[in-house]
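Please fill in the sequence for the structure shown.

STRUCTURE ENCODING:
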């Protein structure tokens, strides 16, 4: 028996993909009004409900926005880096979990990407960004901080470090490295890590930015990478013994 519901879902996905390609390739530009549902229905030879579902898919990706009224309709949205962050994090998290990425590979990638920010971060860091890092460092010294709160603070600290480079493209590319890989690493190592040791590295990283000391920043991130991989190896080895 033909599954019309699945057919409609497949068609809406195909239509959404075609419209998305038009946006990405520049054939539909920012703020341009898309054809009406009736016009798209005729163009793709599908029902209006299928078109409506395709538009919902595009709206969920922040690629289009809808407006009501006499001059309403669906319009190509201007996608901001902030809008795209959550999609990047979700995709990176899924890739890591579904492909069973080795912790050493994830750690190596994360710190290699983070080190790419060092020269720009040292040159461009703002007092506001440094204040965020200092605030998170202070939070991390609290003995009452739960493991979940520690992880969130760790992410916020490194997120601010990346943002010190003041390059939105670089910040976007590193979103997955910091906000997907870092929680994964914390989940594995939280039982064995020394908060005091990580805090000392975080303090050194702040100092390197304040003094614009590129070698210190690179050395500190290298030491954090080595420590993280050693922790992960120990935790995983202990699990194998059980």
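FILLED IN BY: designer on duty
SEQUENCE:
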């Amino acid at each position: 028996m033909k599954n019309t519901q699945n057919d409609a879902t497949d068609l809406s996905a195909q239509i959404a993909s075609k419209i998305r390609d038009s946006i990405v390739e520049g054939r539909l530009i920012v703020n341009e009004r898309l054809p009406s549902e009736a016009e798209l229905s005729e163009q793709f030879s599908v029902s209006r409900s299928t078109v409506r579902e395709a538009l919902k898919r595009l709206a969920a990706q922040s690629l289009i926005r809808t407006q009501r009224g006499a001059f309403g309709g669906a319009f190509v949205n201007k996608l901001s880096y902030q809008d795209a962050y959550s999609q990047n994090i979700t995709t990176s998290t899924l890739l890591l979990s579904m492909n069973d990425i080795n912790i050493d590979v994830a750690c190596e990638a994360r710190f290699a990407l983070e080190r790419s920010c060092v020269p720009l971060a040292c040159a461009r860091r703002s007092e506001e960004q440094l204040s965020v890092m200092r605030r998170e460092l202070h939070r991390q010294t609290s003995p009452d901080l739960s493991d979940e709160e520690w992880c969130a603070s760790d992410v916020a600290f490194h997120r601010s470090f990346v943002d010190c480079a003041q390059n939105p493209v670089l910040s976007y590319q590193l979103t997955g490295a910091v906000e997907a890989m870092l929680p994964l690493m914390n989940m594995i190592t939280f039982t064995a890590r020394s908060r005091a040791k990580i805090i000392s590295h975080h303090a050194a990283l702040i100092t390197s930015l304040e003094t614009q000391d590129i070698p210190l920043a690179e050395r500190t991130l290298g030491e954090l990478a080595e420590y993280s991989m050693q922790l992960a190896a120990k935790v995983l080895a202990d699990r194998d013994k059980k």
